[in-house]
Design brief:
The complex is a heterodimer of chains A (about 180) and B (about 350).
Chain A (H helix, E strand, L loop, with lengths): L2 H59 L9 E5 L11 E8 L2 E8 L6 E9 L5 E3 L11 E3 L2 E3 L5 E7 L5 E8 L4
Parallel strand pairs in A: 5-9
Antiparallel strand pairs in A: 1-8, 2-3, 2-7, 3-4, 6-9, 8-9
Chain B lengths: L2 H24 L2 H25 L35 E2 L1 H5 L13 H7 L6 E9 L1 E10 L2 E10 L10 E10 L2 E4 L3 E4 L5 E7 L6 E9 L2 E8 L7 E4 L2 E5 L8 E10 L2 E14 L7 E6 L6 E7 L6 E5 L5 E3 L10 E10 L2 E11 L3
Parallel strand pairs in B: 1-19
Antiparallel strand pairs in B: 2-18, 2-20, 3-4, 4-8, 5-6, 5-7, 5-9, 9-10, 11-12, 12-15, 13-14, 13-16, 14-15, 16-17, 19-20
Amino acid sequence: MDVPIAHIIGTAALIALVISVTLAYQIVVDYVETNVLKAQLKQIAEYVSMNLVNIITLTEFAYGDVSTSTVMSKSLKLPKDISGKTYRVRLVNEGGNCYVQAELITRTDLTAKSSIPLNSAKTRVIIVTGEIQLPDDSITPSSVVYGGNPNIVVWCWKNSSSSMCAGIGLRTGGS
Amino acid sequence: MHSYEYLFTAVIIFAILTASAILVSRMPQPSLNVSEKEQLKTAAQKIMTQLTLNPGNPPDWGGNLTVDSTDLTAFGLAKYGEITRGAYILDPDKVQRLNENMPQNLYIPPDRVIELLNLGREYGIKLEFIPALIVTVTTETNPNSITVYVNVTSDRNMWPIANANVTARIFYLYNQQINKTPIITNSTDINGQCIITFNGVSSEDALLALVVDHYGIHVVKTYALNGALTQAFFLGNHLILNASLSIISNTAYQIIIAESDETYVIDYALCGLNLTDSLSDPSYSLYEINYTEPSAVALLAVVEGEPNLAVACKNVPSCYSSISGEASSPFIYMLERSVEIGGSSYTLRLKIWRMSW
């Protein structure tokens, strides 16, 4: 083989290798970043579900003392973003099995779930994932809240003598 | 440039890629480990809240024998009261139903609890019920007396507990009647031991009931002596007895332990029993108690045969786990709460681990 042709083939092969190495490196970095983001999303989902369980337990514990016009709520402190990416927290009810789902807005395939340890279908606690009118106007129920909002709350309302509703939402002044 | 130099360059580039990929994947590992531990911590707190402060659904599922594991719609061990509720007070009947010695359909299996707690296949859990004081009892039967040796140690390091007040009484069978000794109190010495002698006890068909109190931490212990039968369960307002035994005169004695003016009263109350046939397990007979004292810790009944004293105690299992044996996952988070079960102080230890990462 002529020497110049051998050089051309060698140089082209090297360039192709550099490109493929860069791509491969990017894939590895993406994989690692996905794992890190997923862990952070999972932590947020666990935090929200823990607070939801706490507020439900507190309301249930004070069941006889709480009137039907009182909505118990707790403000959540959630990070503004996850590694510079915006995210949202969603409350999901799948046939009574309720869980909190945290997901990135730009990558909806990247989600993390945290279960709420009660079956909402048969207990007196109803996890609200739709619309509901609360007696306390300062809380707007919502099944989806966006991270970074400082007014995110978990709430629980004893709506009758035999049932309670709980969910997430925003305190008035939030967007 | 020779061809082997191209090859050498390619090898170097490939080596750089491999090294970078390894370094990049290892870099976030410490923070990932911390994050995973935090997730377990949050999940453990959530489950502990549910277990200790929520009565479950139906709220009286512990003593309600018509409720089996499939009828439960929410799981919690807290004691339920229509008027008053106490924090971290667990229902002894609910705790008893975690005991795998219970008759079939009354036992709540761990996989059902995992399902009720909505944990899916993601987590494994283990519950340990550890008495706040470890009370060991040995007895020595003499012709006309019973000597009880009580040893009290700490649950943490097994150090002896000195100056613990021990209040005890023996209920024994004599002439087909349940008799009781006077209440005897004593304090543990520097080695955590004390000796109590009950004179005038002429039968080994007996139950020892004692309370150990150490500056507010109290442990109730019932101890069936050699001759007494223990093939019975005291659950809610029911006595579950081995079907081979039959009770004489359909009466039983509830052993009551209650605190009164910083002292403890240990006594019995007579109650009537009605034989019902609503238990599906044919190896047990089910008796309904016409009235159950809230502070009853055991039930005594005279049965036909020898020995003829049946003892049913409220047994707290020491361990309840979703797997058999010790969990050996690299990440196990452990959380403890002080709880009260049937008048005794316990430490409830929850261990939680991820089944997969």
